[in-house]
Amino acid sequence: MRKKTDSSVTNSTYLTLNEFNVDNILWVDEIDGLLSATNYIKGCKVIGVDCEWKPNYVKGSKPNKVSIMQIASDKRVLIFDLIKLYNDEPKTLDSCFKSIMHSPKILKLGYNLQCDLRELSRSYGDLEGFRYYEMVLDIQKLFKEASGGLSGLAEKILGAGLNKTRRNSNWEQRPLTQNQIEYAALDATVLIHIFHHVHGQSQTTGMKQENSNEWKSHIVFHTGSKQSKTLKNM
Q: Is 233 among the domain residues?
């Protein structure tokens, strides 16, 4: 994490994965990897969640499906090729993500999370794992005064922002470029470290109890709907 006092650094450079000691970035696009990744995530207490999809510049046309989902823990990032997994193993994909997204034991962090959840439901609305969620925390709602999106918040909390030049790239191309993979992994990883900052600060600054637990009041315990949607109607 950067020291915010070094303005020459924060204004000229961006955060990188190397600053967060990420051990592995794993690409998940087949059933064995999906099962292994799910078992790993089920052992986590807090995860960062983010999604990417190919931009659509044709006016009046439907948005493209969510292409990938990134899930980060403290030391690992798993990038799920949702398009391929949905086409190859929809039942297994649904079962795995139900065990993650429906779990009240795993806190899911996001930024403007409702947007990602809405797009997941639109893209894969026939799978229950992408329609209903438990224990989610939208980091954006903790810092309503912050500007500049997740990058601006990262600069405020962690000392440097994010390079967002890859945001509107082609997320349906395979393989993704190394820059795309690192961009996707970093977005999810930063969520974890912003949360650790908030959680750690509440425990070490001697705040009053009601203030130290303020972030907990933003947790949404249930969101979405278990009602099935058919893709043909979307």
A: no
Tens digits of residue pLDDT in 12-52: 489 999 999 899 999 999 999 999 999 999 999 999 999 99
* Residue 234 domain-assigned (yes or no): no
Output the domain CATH number for residue 192.
Answer: 3.30.420.10
- CA dihedral 188→55→15→137, nearest 10 degrees, is -30
Look at residue 183 and tell me if it is in a domain. Answer: yes
CA–CA separation, 124 and 231 (whole Å): 7
- Do 102 and 136 touch, CB atoms closer than 8 A? no
> Do the strands 76-81 and 24-28 form a parallel or antiparallel pair, or are they unpaired?
parallel
In the chain, how many domains are there?
1
List Cβ neighbours of 29 (8 Å cut-off, separation of 6 or more). 80, 81, 84, 85
User: What pLDDT, in 10s, does the model give residues 118-142?
Assistant: 999 999 999 999 999 999 999 998 8
Relative to beta strand 107-110, strand 132-138 is parallel
SS (H, E, C) 38-95: HHHHHCCCEEEEEEEECCCCCCCCCCCCEEEEEEECCCEEEEEEHHHHHHHCHHHHHH
Buried/exposed 74-92: b ≥16 CB within 10 Å, e otherwise = bebbbbbbbbbbbeebeee
The reported pTM is 0.85
Residue 12, token pair as written in the block: 């000229």
Which residue type, as a one-letter code, is found at position 15?
A: L
Residues of the domain holding 187: 7-224
Closest to 180 in 3D by CA, of 170, 192, 194, 191? 170
Residue 229 in any domain: the answer is no
* Contact indicator for 181, 24 with CB cutoff of 8 Å: no
